[in-house]
Each structure stands twice: as C-alpha cells, then as structure tokens.
Amino acid sequence: MTTFDRIKELAEKRGKSLPAVSADLKFSDNLFYRWKTSNPKASDLAKVADYFHVSVDYLLGREEKPFPSDADLADMIERSTHFDGKEYPDEVKQGMKDVLRAYLMGRLDDKE
C-alpha cells in the first residue's frame, strides 16, 4: 500500500474526502494526488500523521499498525529501567504505563 493509499484509507475511515483533509491541513487540493508520483516533504508527512494520529512510519508503509498498541507501549516502558541515572521500581513502571495509557486515550478521544 502506498502513502497515498494509506492517507486515502484514513480519510475514508473518518468520512472525509482528500480535498477536505487538504483544506483542514491548509495544503493545496491536489497535494495528495501528487504524492502518487513524487516524494512528500517530511514536514508535510508529519502534519498528516498528527492529523490522523498515526506515525509517519505507518504512512510510509514501514509499520503495519497506525500507532503502538498497549503491548508495544508496555514493552517500551518495561525495557526502560533508568531515568536520570537512577533505577526505578516496578510500581513506578506500572504508574508510567497507567499515565501513558490515560494520556493517549484522552488525546485520541479529544481528536474524534
């Protein structure tokens, strides 16, 4: 699936047309269609990723999932064992998971 295809699919899931997404992002009407044959600028891709709450890697086809799952986030926290040179205990890790999950869910709910 191409970057264009992924953006089109994300727009359709939101009930939006590509020109409407372009307008929301203050892009030219045909920008996404030009991406079928040319490479998008990194800054434009970042805006699209933020708009749809997905990663740039997802848009580029490097990731199959639009954003990390709970398991991915939990794994990242588990692997991080130190902050500012100090090791933190398991209860701190669990608190980090809870806060991150609540934050991300709130952000996703705010954007819908």
UniProtKB/TrEMBL annotation:
Coiled coil: none annotated. CDD domains: HTH_XRE. GO terms for molecular function: DNA binding. It comes from the Bacteria. InterPro entries: Cro/C1-type_HTH (IPR001387), Lambda_DNA-bd_dom_sf (IPR010982). PROSITE patterns: HTH_CROC1 (PS50943). Residues 38-59 form the HTH cro/C1-type domain. This is Helix-turn-helix domain-containing protein.
